[in-house]
Amino acid sequence: MRIAxxxxxxxxxxxxxxxxxxxxxxxxxxxxxxxxGVWAMGYPGVRLQNTRDQxxxxxxxxxxxxxxxxxxxxxxxxxxxxxxxLDLPVKLGHEVTKLEEAExxxxxxxxxxxxxxxxxxxxxxxxxxxxxxxxxxxxxPGQDKxxxxxxxxxxxxxxxxxxxxxVLVAGFGKSALDMATFAVEQASExxxxxxxxxxxxxxxxxxxxYSRLLFCRMGTFLMPSWxxxxxxxxxxxxxxxxxxxxxxxxxxxIVRLQKYLMGFGKSAVVKARLASLTPKHDIISDFRSASxxxxxxxxxxxxxxxxxxxxxxxxxxxxxxxxxxDGQTIDCDVVVLSLGSGSPTFPFLPDKxxxxxxxxxxxxxxxxHLLHPEVPRIAFAGFNHGFMHVPAVEIGMLWLSALLTGDLxxxxxxxxxxxxxxxxxxxxxxxxxxxxxxxxxxxxxxxYLDVLLKDLGLNPYRKTxxxxxxxxxxxxxxxxxxxxxxxxxxRAQGAQPLRALAVDT
Length: 505
Description:
Layout: E1 2-6, H1 10-21, E2 25-30, H2 72-86, E3 90-92, E4 94-102, E5 105-112, E6 115-121, E7 123-126, E8 149-152, E9 166-170, H3 174-184, E10 189-194, E11 200-201, E12 204-205, E13 208-209, H4 210-214, H5 217-221, H6 231-239, H7 241-262, H8 268-275, H9 283-287, E14 292-293, H10 298-303, E15 308-311, E16 314-317, E17 321-324, E18 329-331, E19 334-337, H11 351-358, E20 378-380, H12 389-404, E21 408-409, H13 413-430, H14 445-455, H15 467-472, H16 483-492, E22 498-499
Parallel strand pairs: 1-2, 1-7, 2-3, 7-20, 8-19, 9-10, 9-19, 10-15, 11-14, 21-22
Antiparallel strand pairs: 4-5, 5-6, 12-13, 16-17, 17-18
Helix pairs in contact: 1-12, 6-7, 12-14
């Protein structure tokens, strides 16, 4: 089958290699002049929140050992290595302008350096990413009078822009925390403004790297989720919920204590600033959302009074700075709006399909984070954002390939819609960070991978029969190497037809 993949970031590359491995003819279209997606556009100093062991293509080891938390340049090199090793076909500088339905497939229209062209495909995989619509940049009263500079973090290409300046960073996601931390080394004064603090997850909890706690199956057993695909998990959450709550209360207490100790021996003002960074909601609420890791030195800079946090909301600009909702004014020369990205848009799709995908207030909702039951011959890759993002894309495309070859059958459109609505309602009830109510898997990645593998008739428990390793060892791409061959061997032995579950329970 001829498949076009729109988007040349890590999801598009992972999708291409997975689909081609299962026998499909693929072509990647990337509108920029280089691959990498968000990694090609990353701000200086940006690093992965998860580790090198969890973030790579299954069949492409790191060519040189990167940092534990790789830089954007190191990720970019990994993707270039993948293109070369796998010989993946990529059309750079090709912006897809329109998809129109054709007999048995799609006609793809594109622009390339002023020239237009078209090509027919049997199937389309959209891998434009959840951040493709760009950074949110709301308008504020008085900003036209501001004599300084207003930017988003994506517009910053050199941290020297902060040199000797008074800087204010607005937001509380990963990018905002990074920008505030990085600015300290260059700026004369740094302010961090946020409306609602969230739990920053330390890279180490009592000296143990967070990945050892979250990337093992026992960690996922204790992670509240819309799906508990095994009887043990279901029992723990339905009958032993008090133990689950106790576990996360303990983690929260440890994180709170580590933050408290940063203020030991400091003034009352510093202690109050550190306290303002502690949310009123429970830590598990943010674990359900897009958890932000605590940058190295962020709390140290607050404790050292080199970084000044402010809880409040930006109301307006003056010539010299900003005014907060409580009337406080902050003088600044550079304002970094790090307020997240808008929901993705699909301007190249026919209006009827675009409306289905863009009208949802909680973002794009998909069955298995891969398909929309009312959008034919189109799948999505990378709309399952989580800590084990890359294996999720690769296994998701194996799932898609099983569907395209007829090995896997789907429930009815109505049943798929019911599944999507059930998950969406769970998120509305439990996820307090709205941008994460789309197709984010985040810390619930293990359950998601388990469901896909069970759909495919494969064993999700990759470390058995070693029970201790299964429960307490970290999971990563290495555990899924050979999954394609395993699947093909099972089908060759005349396994029973596969059917995806209708509703995740």
